[in-house]
C-alpha cells in the first residue's frame, strides 16, 4: 500500500528472513541491505562498496545469490531471504561454514558472510548442472556428464566476491571440501536400499 509522506513514497513489503516472516513499511528506494541491517538487525551482510562489485553483501533470495546493496526491498515482496545467520548458528554451523573455519577461509571476516552465502548458492548451481564460463564443453554437450568442480571452476563462480585479506586459497579449499563431503553423502544415500 502506498502512503504519501510529502514526496517520498513508502510501501509495505512482506519477506521471510532466515525463516522469520517480516513486514516492513519503507521508502520505495530502500535496498535489501539497508532493510536487513538498519531495520531488521540482521548484520551479517556487510556494506562494502555499495555498488554491487565486492560481494560483501551477498545473500540468498529464493535460493539464488544476490548482492543486497543493489536489490530493492520493494521488488522482493513474498520472497525468502537467507543470510549467513540463516545457514547456521555459532553452536551449529552449516557444513560450509564449518569448512571455512576448518580451512581458515577467513582473516578479518568482513567478506566471509557474503562468501559463504555465495558459495552455498554456487554449490546448488553446480548440483543443478548450471555451467560457468570455464565449464568443460563436454559437460555442456552431454547432460549426463556432471560439472567438475575444479579450482578454476570454483574461482570463476566465486569471482564476484572479493577478499581484501587474500584468503582465496583457503576459501577455494573450503568449498572444494564441502562439495566432496556432500557428494560422498549423496553417494552413500543412493547406495542404501
TrEMBL record:
2Fe-2S ferredoxin-type domain location: 11-87
GO cellular component: periplasmic space
Sorted UniProt keywords: 2Fe-2S, Iron, Iron-sulfur, Metal-binding, Oxidoreductase
Keyword Transit peptide annotated: no
Highest taxon of the lineage: Bacteria
Stored InterPro entries: 2Fe-2S-bd, 2Fe-2S-bd_dom_sf, 2Fe-2S_ferredoxin-like_sf, 2Fe-2S_ferredoxin-type, 2Fe2S_fd_BS, Aldehyde_Oxdr_Iron-Sulfur, Beta-grasp_dom_sf
Keyword Metal-binding tagged: yes
Protein name: Periplasmic aromatic aldehyde oxidoreductase, iron-sulfur subunit YagT
Upper classification of the organism: Bacteria, Bacillati, Actinomycetota, Actinomycetes, Micrococcales
Amino acid at each position: 500500500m502506498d502512503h504519501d509522506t510529502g514526496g517520498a513514497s513508502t510501501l509495505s513489503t512482506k519477506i521471510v528472513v532466515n525463516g522469520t516472516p517480516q513486514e516492513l513499511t519503507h521508502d520505495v528506494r530502500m535496498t535489501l541491505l539497508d532493510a536487513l541491517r538498519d531495520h531488521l538487525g540482521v548484520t551479517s551482510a556487510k556494506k562494502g562498496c555499495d555498488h554491487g562489485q565486492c560481494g560483501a553483501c551477498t545473500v540468498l533470495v529464493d535460493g539464488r545469490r544476490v548482492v543486497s546493496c543493489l536489490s530493492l526491498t520493494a521488488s522482493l515482496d513474498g520472497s525468502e531471504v537467507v543470510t549467513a545467520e540463516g545457514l547456521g548458528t555459532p553452536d551449529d554451523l552449516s557444513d560450509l561454514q564449518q569448512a571455512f573455519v576448518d580451512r581458515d577461509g577467513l582473516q578479518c571476516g568482513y567478506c566471509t558472510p557474503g562468501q559463504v552465502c555465495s558459495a552455498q548458492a554456487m554449490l546448488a548451481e553446480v548440483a543443478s548442472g548450471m555451467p560457468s564460463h570455464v565449464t568443460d564443453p563436454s559437460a555442456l554437450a552431454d547432460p549426463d556428464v556432471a560439472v567438475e568442480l575444479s579450482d578454476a571452476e570454483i574461482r570463476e563462480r566465486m569471482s564476484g566476491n572479493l577478499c581484501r585479506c587474500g584468503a582465496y586459497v583457503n576459501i577455494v579449499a573450503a568449498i572444494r571440501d564441502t562439495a566432496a563431503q556432500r557428494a560422498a553423502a549423496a553417494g552413500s544415500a543412493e547406495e542404501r536400499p
